[in-house]
Amino acid sequence: MYKSKIRCISIFAVLIVAFSFLIYRLYFIMSSNKALQVNYAAQMSSFEKISDANYDVVDCNGNNLLSFNKEYYVVVNPYIFSRNNSDTNIRELTALNYILKNYNKNYDLSEISIEDSTNKLYWKIDEALYNNLKKFKDVNGIYTYYVNKIDRSKAADIYNILTNPKDKNNKKFKANNSIEKLIYDKFKNNAYPEKVFKNDNNGNTVSSTEINSKNLSKVKLTIDKTINDKVQSILSSSDLKQVCAIVMESENGAIRAISQKDLYDANINLGLKGVYYPGSIFKAIVEEAAIENKSIDLDKPIKDTGKYSEEKVYDYCTPKQAFVVSSNDVFINIGQKTGFYNIYNTAKKQGLFDKVLNIDGESSGSMDNMDSNNTGNLSLLSYGQSLRITPLGALSIPNTVVNKGIYVKPHIVDSYVDGNTGKVEKEKIYSNRVISENTANIMLELFKQVITDKHGTGLLAYTPNPCIGGKTGTAQRGENKDKTIKNVDSWFAGFFNAKGINYSAIIFAPEIDKNMSAATTTAPIFKKIVEALNSNN
């Protein structure tokens, strides 16, 4: 009897030790193996990604810039649904099934069994059904949520472009050196915002919380949402079929607004639909090259035959007057005296033949003909008809002038902000002198006279301002098979002051009627932008 008692105690002690060892081993394995911890947690929780952006995009003042559309889902866990709904009111189940089948005949709860699937079923629904399903709280194994999807309906929206690292088919990544791929690589390892649905021991959802949605990392753009919205409003109210505009802070090259009237079309500012003849705004480059190379006497009159000019103002006019009234004939003479490569190099130094923001698909400027001995080509170049540029590239024309001869490369990313550490990585600003300060000062006065002289082509752009000037450009397209001109492109390149800050701007309207001109189309839009940015409204 005594021996039996001792044997029982010994066996019991061995079992306790063995059981304790097993508990210890299980604890050790679980605590040291993250994968097992995750698997265990997954049995008690469901994780759903609720945004397709794992970072924020903000303007220079910290305002959110991304627009989202909500995609709604109802999720069915076949195992939990089939196992744990025996106590659910049959009317509630029947009503829920009816509503789902009425929305989509394939959403049939009566066909679901444990054996059907080991994976959850995701049924896409609309907002009305999502709100309707919220009242069914006693059905186990079913829950609803929505995902914030970046609105990509507006092809020209710069925020849409910057946050999309893949091609139009959403299959291949864009070029490794593109700004879109750079932004993607910065944040690709960041956690996405998720919603966690907590389950009880029977797998029934008892609560839900969001994780990873706070302290997201940020791309801080140079865009000022207030300025951009004002510019967008002006473009949207224009009678023109399409028109785009860029406004940049002159001193630092920070783009504060970039938009166009029809945002559902390809981005014209970036040249995603092609490149364009700049027309007479290019005369600024020709005049600069002539001054820099001492090719002309600015005050010596040159005969204007009127053969190539749309409107002849003077029989003879100086190169200064020719810029103000935009005489093609006189500028052909200036171009011939200055030479092809002097003009070309002046344009190249101001970035007219390079990508500016390095956005994938962004166009760079180009020459139609690089034959420097071709007299006809040089004549066309002299008034902007044998090279093609983008509106973004054209921004350097007024900006170099108002910056006293210094080219500042435009940029749109201000910095990257780490959401966890708060560390800020600022983007570099690139600038260099491309023309002398003396040349820039001469051009500055000529830009001002374009909108103040009684014969100036930009009179409709004028509004009282501490520092305002510009240049019109009406460029022939020459794309019709019969060689006739039906449409022209309209440009305005200018600078102005708004509340103590100098800005440079490009306004561009493609394919306007040939009987219209920049003087009556893009110049007045420039004026509206200047007035809007100086307004307190």
From TrEMBL:
Transmembrane listed as a keyword: yes
Transmembrane feature ranges: 12-30
Gene3D superfamilies listed in its UniProt record: DD-peptidase/beta-lactamase superfamily
Domain of life the protein comes from: Bacteria
Chief localization: membrane
Penicillin-binding protein transpeptidase domain span: 244-531
Keywords from the UniProt entry: Membrane, Transmembrane, Transmembrane helix
Family annotation (InterPro entries): Beta-lactam/transpept (IPR050515), Beta-lactam/transpept-like (IPR012338), PCN-bd_Tpept (IPR001460)
Places the protein is found: Membrane
Protein name: Penicillin-binding transpeptidase domain-containing protein
The species this protein was found in: Clostridium neuense
